[in-house]
Write a structure and sequence with these properties.
Layout: H1 6-22, H2 33-54, H3 68-84, H4 90-99, H5 118-134, H6 145-157, E1 182-184, H7 185-202, H8 205-220, E2 224-225, E3 230-231, E4 234-236, H9 250-266, H10 271-288, H11 316-330, H12 335-352, H13 376-394, H14 431-445
Helix pairs in contact: 2-3, 2-13, 3-5, 3-13, 5-6, 5-7, 6-7, 7-8, 7-9, 9-10, 9-11, 11-12, 11-13, 12-13
Length: about 450
Amino acid sequence: MRALSWQQLCGAVLLLLQGQVALSALTVEVNSKDSLANAGKDIIDPMMTFYQQNQTEGIPGKLTDTWYIAGAMFMTMIQYWATSGVDQYNKVVSHDLMFQAGENYDYFSANYSQWLGNDDQMFWGLASITASETGFPEVSGKPSWTSLARAVFNMQVGRWDTTACGGGLRWQIWPYQAGYTMKNSISNGGLFELSARLARFTKNGTYAEWAEKIWDWSASSPLIRPDRWYVADSTSNENGCKDSGNNQWTYNYGTFLSGAAFMYNYTNGDAKWEKRVNGLLDTLLKTFFPAGYGGNVLSEVACEPIMSCDRNQLGFKGYTAMWLAHTAILVPSTAALITPKLQGSAQAIAKQCSGKSENLCGETWGKDTWDGMSGLEVQMAALGGITSNLMLLENKSPQTVDTNPDAAEHHIDNNENSSKDPTKAKPIETADRAGAWILTVMIAVGTMGAVGWLIKTQ
């Protein structure tokens, strides 16, 4: 084989270096706002490309085959903007978040309400209260962000179900949905967190009373086990809420932990909320920061080791990271435990977001190089992980109505949509609506039969 000339050798080295630059990891210095903000920018740009590519027929805020994930994405983007100052996508967030509030400004649009779960609607409520707490600009001529969160709260507490298990929120809303017979942690934990955050922001004691009620019921059910601070995924009405689905997910712990942290702050350090924060935090840190990744990298342990996480599960870590940051800020005694975990996760994200030339992020933060996964959800999770560190650096408590009076709540008349089956509320106009109507009729005719044939996997 003929030896390469000096010029050829230099050219080969240059090409190799260019390839390495294209596939290089992000630069993240966890104590530098500029470094973290720039890393977030590198992550958010391809995420928004995925967002545009996955919009259903160009409908703002509606992604193909899902609805809530865009709400969770806006929640993440608002928190990132608030701590980084990067406002490039604020107009998109503002428009699409308000657009999806629907005709009654309650995130229960007739276009989707026939198949929604309580957890779907809840994430949009959390996005809205995040907007209020961060001072995200209000939309002229529209209800305040707090009012939208309040509308979600009002609808969901109206569905509080005492007909089975003495209380709790069902996973799904309509009897023709298989999840209607279940009560799960993300629906109840999400409503608990929303209630706690509304209580703190508005200083309205009604929200705090509901937060107490939701916690007490959850802790009396198999969903939360205070004896060992274990959070189950779900429980079944059909078995009197005696059983539980025991898969461990970061966001189930995160919602209850965040809500408890907001209640601790709201109550000026009530010891019972401090105990609950510490108990949940201890289990979360032990469960989801595995020793195999050095103990300081967040992992979705139920699916990540075998790369089996679905699109929902791919996003959980990002929300949880931000909720951990909220906890460190609102309950300062926890900061020393939480900070190295979130910093270690950000450093790991920097290595994992090295896909192709676009800083594509993978699923497994604990791997030193991109694992080949790509898509909106993994970008969103990585953005949440970076944002959590910006939150720690800023160390600024979420705002209240005292510091953000523009976000004061007011009543929205949602025409009691929570009690009306949307498949009966309007004429059939599309194939999807026709399918939902047929389901409803079949259930009305066969009320004595089983309704579990319509399967929606969790």
